[in-house]
Amino acid sequence: MARANGEGSIYPKGDGFEVALIVHGRRRTARAKTITEARAKLRELQRRQEQEQASYDERISVKQFLEYWLSVTQTTVRPRTYKRYAEYVRVHAIPEVGHLRLSKLRPVHLQDLYAARLKAGASPSTVQHLHATLHRALKMAERWEYVPRNVASRVTAPRVPKYKIRPLTLAEVRRLLAAAAGTRFEAAVVLAVVTGMRLGEIFALRWADLDLGNEAVIHVRGSLQRVDGKLQIVEPKTVGSVRDVALSELGREALRRHRKQQMKHRLQLGDSWEDRDLVFPNAWGRFMATDYFVRGEFRRILDKAALPHIRFHDLRHTFATLQLGNQQPIKIVSEMMGHSRTAITQDLYTHVSAQMQRKAADALDLALRSDESQEGGSTAAEDC
Is the pLDDT of residue 174 over 90? Predict the structure, then answer.
């Protein structure tokens, strides 16, 4: 087994002993006549190594550390996540604090950094993500003992205004589905409403992922994302995002109609069709750009239904709102949506919880008043 940095060994050699110590991947050695002398020389090598390490730690800059952190993090996260980390580090952090020594970085430097980025026009959401990225990097610096503490944990990130969820009402959903009927992406809209799937998950579907038999189910295994300017199917957002979602009859019928339309279109294109087994490809069988779909097809459907230009993601919120409002267990809804914890679902849909509490309170009130009426009726009868 390879020895760790700073770990030493002593072993017999010739008429004495040899001392060895690994320092930054290099082996340093010394000779000694006795075991006592060998132990003393090992301690001396370790003391020098600690002094050199302390000197190196003192000199390393924020830029040097962040670049190194990016290099070791690249293989541990999804490509899109790494790309965001690199952007926050190189575009926002390094130009402002990269010149500082890591050992001299203080909370005030990060607080000034966040204020400067906000003043430059960055959104509170961007600065909050920047803070989360630096917190993660500096947590590793703390574990590696480059710094005694994570200074980012002592800094307050800007508050991000909470996005107000705009789920559609049941009447609006019916208008939306009527407007989508017969269009090339009718089934995509239907799936968003009846399964709560994300747009990237829907556009990553292959026909092999669908079971349209009696036990209709969708196997969610990936998400279509743009990575370095290229569309590709990547791993889902979380472990919980890899899931099987039950498909309603409405969704099954829409997919069957969609498959017939697609087969007819394929026959018309002939050899020009690129078969990737995608359920929702572009007109040539290749990946369909989600942004192009949202700006084009989806907005045309919204306009036809006389609905505001909501995000496609709001259909996911619509699914959850309708399901929870219909008294479906939050655990089941959370699993269908691919949330890693039910707490995420609860936090997102507090407005539904408030509505359900109101219904519960009114139902109890109605029951209590009914009892009063019955009691009053009995008393009146007895009086007669």
Answer: yes
Model pLDDT for residues 183-213, shown as the tens digit of each residue: 999 999 999 999 999 999 999 999 999 998 8
Contact assessment for residue 26 and residue 64, using Cβ atoms and an 8 Å cutoff = no
- Please report, for the domain that includes residue 259, its CATH number: 1.10.443.10
Query: Residue 54 in 3-state DSSP?
Result: helix
Is residue 383, in this structure, part of any structural domain at all?
no
Domain span holding position 26: 8-59
How many Cβ atoms are within 10 Å of 334's Cβ, its own excluded? 23
Nearest in space to 115 (alpha carbons), one of 92, 91, 85: 92
Spatial CA neighbour of 206 closest among 288, 271, 269: 288
DSSP string, 293-310: HIIIIIHHHHHHTT----
Confidence of residue 384 (pLDDT cuts 50, 70, 90): very low
Q: Computed from CA positions of residues 77, 79, 84, 90, in that sequence, does the dihedral angle turn out positive or negative?
A: positive
SS3 251: helix
For the whole model, what pTM was predicted? 0.65
Task: Determine contact, residues 293/166, Cβ cutoff 8 Å.
Answer: no
CB 131 within 8 A of CB 152: yes
- The count of structural domains within the chain is 3
Q: In what order do the strands lie in the sheet with 16-23?
A: 8-13, 16-23, 26-32
The pLDDT score that the predictor gives to residue 324 is 82
Residues 33, 91 share a domain: no
3-state secondary structure at position 156: coil
Query: In 3D, which of 292, 295, 276 has the Cα closest to residue 284?
Result: 276
